[in-house]
């Protein structure tokens, strides 16, 4: 899987929650770096469901990536 | 109306005023033209919402008429002494008479033929009500109306036959259905009884032995299934005949006795040289089995109705007893194991009634062929009815095993839980055993394909027809396959009329008042995002209270990937954007790997991919965290174990 990801020619946005225990920012950043074309964003003060903790910030990030 | 028959057990005839209050029934639609029924659709990956939405309801005038009848029936049933039926192992004459006065023998018979014209829905309700009182009475009425003469006549009889026999049936000329023989039960196609046409073709001569004829001992009219030999001018085959029970040559050899349903009049009947006029053939020669099976389609619904009644009665007894009986200082209903049984009985009874009501109304609307619904309902209801009876006996403890009469003799309340169990047992056997129902249901499940491809396989079909068949089969599969992989529910606008879908738990939580402002901002923007039509939201469910376990996500993931790809092509998207959250990332990654060229952009929100996609750093983190946490549990265990050793 990891090697397959390394060749994935698709823009990837990975969003992490600053306080997410399932995937904290540091491993999340490492994870994002596995993709050749990735962007990484941390939602401050957010947990595993960042759109709940910072709806605007989270959705704006996604919208910017998709536009 | 025909004159009262001398053999009728019921002298009373229903007055004409009672029939005039009945609404005129709707004309019966052509059954063969009925469209596909819901379980068939389900087998094909289609959920036909029109079956339950809008939920069918009885028409107002039908409802008024039906409710009025049920109220009368209820007050009458209060006077029926069920214990006496059990004690004497027969239904007293005055009960036959009382039921006839109410019109119970013609509940389903159309008004123009002297019946109540209630339709299946209210007929079912009546049987449910009767099922709470005495199962033998239910069997008497359903053997007469669900499988006896009225149903096949309404389905396949000529106008003359209907005029001649239905009014008699409606007023209490009890009928019986004679199919089973000592040598043939589940496989009726091999039946041995014969019907030989006389030389002048004016009559048939019937010979044979029929076993377990419910109502056969007291019936005035019989439906007899017999085989007509093939000959010149006779296509032959198993055929259905109307036979007067007092015709010369008919003998009821004995009245059978059973584990339950002790009140039924079930006989062993022989026919020797019984002459039946040609006009008494129902339908055509060779149509007997088809008529019998079609009769059973709706006829089978009587069993779920009676089981629902037994469930209601069981629930009442279970509630009362588990409150009254105290053991270990508490009502037994407060002990978890007993509480579970009560919950099972309550929930299952609720479901039984829902199934009975829905199938009854579908039968009344007559827009669907309900044979699969009826088979499903019969199988499930009879199995569940038996389990309910068994659990009730358990809840009653020793008293569950004791007869009502014995309880009464000791001065206790006469509750016949054991009788209920015995009465329920037969439902798994007659009118198509559970094993046969399963075969029928399973066969229908594959049948859709066989039918579509049928002519292709049939060697007797010529090439032109085969080509035609191939064209229509490929049309069938062209429609069927996409529906299977990407059902209607996957299309964004399919269920718009139901309004917004319930948000996933995470969003629902965000929707709570304290987070109100935030949530609506988010939902608003989210709505904006999803309107791009290119974005698929994946597994937002993976958050919050109902966390999708990773295992569950991963074991389905392989199929879902292909579904997703089918969805993409179904939506006509050349490339699509995916957004995945939490465990949904596993699916998105697998899709990316397999169908990367069809993916435009990928958004992963707090992904928790499967092990094989998990970065090492995270594993290290977890390992570090695990080693830092004091291992209280294991050490405690160790200590306890060593303490014990000491
Ligand atoms: C109280 C009572 C009332 C009845 N009333 C009537 C009535 O009014 N009219 C009437 O015509 N008949 C009536 N019957 C007969 C009833 O419908 C039959 O008993 C029923 O059809 C089963 O037939 P059988 O008893 O001969 O069992 P069999 O067919 O001999 O079957 C024996 C067992 O084998 C199983 N079995 C058979 N074939 C298969 C298969 N292919 N695959 C898997 N398992 C299979 C059956 O499920 C059953 O468990 C009544 C029976 C009773 C007991």
UniProtKB/TrEMBL annotation, chain A:
Residues 9-66 form the Peptidase S33 tripeptidyl aminopeptidase-like C-terminal domain. It comes from the Bacteria. This is Peptidase S33 tripeptidyl aminopeptidase-like C-terminal domain-containing protein. It comes from Agromyces bauzanensis.
